[in-house]
Amino acid sequence: MTKTLGTPPISPAQTRSADRTRKQILEIATEEFADKGYSGARIDEIAERTNTSKRMIYYYFESKEGLYRSVLAQAYARIRRTEAVAELESMPPAEAMARLTEITFDYHSEHPEFVRLVMNENIQRGAMIGSIDSTQTRSDSVVGMIGELIRRGEADGVFREGLDPLQLHMTMSALSFYNVSNRYTFEKVFSYHMGSPEAVATRRAIVVETVLRYCRKD
């Protein structure tokens, strides 16, 4: 009687290697999708840059669409993780709101690929992002965090009543987004280099003060 051999177990080394390969593919794919959009990015180029193959990419992500969804999910997860570890609970509400605004601004400034991904997805009218459940869950969490800061600020008498956490999140994001999304056209039109360290620091301070002035009680 011939003994049937099962699939050999995957070793920890193989698992680590697979994780590294998958991570590398995601990083390069993020650059490609951010620079060229969904339609312009090519799996062949991503495979070449990662020294893998189209077959390997499809093994991990099933399709180009699957890879793009994973890139979007990772991009949004990263900014949400950055917000989540801010330890705002121990800060007074106004200080915590300022810190959250700084974190939001810094993330956009330091990750222009995130801004370009969001811009490209909006060009496609949000074709993919709505189907990524984890993005909705994480976005709900940051709105909840802002809502709690508003509640604490109202209770302490430092924030005015009637602040909407979703609208406030939108304001933070918009003010942080513009400094990256429009830096090249703004520079051409106004001869002002928005990406210089001095300009970034100046704009960061203005954005924080704008958010705080909006929140403060008269």
Automatic annotation (TrEMBL):
Gene3D superfamilies noted in UniProt: Tetracycline Repressor, domain 2
InterPro entries: Homeodomain-like_sf, HTH-type_TetR-like_transc_reg, HTH_TetR, NicS_C, Tet_transcr_reg_TetR-rel_C_sf
Keyword terms of this UniProt record: DNA-binding
Lipid metabolism among keywords: no
DNA-binding region: 42-61
Residue ranges of domain HTH tetR-type in the record: 19-79
UniProt region (Disordered), positions on chain: 1-20
Protein name from the UniProt record: TetR/AcrR family transcriptional regulator
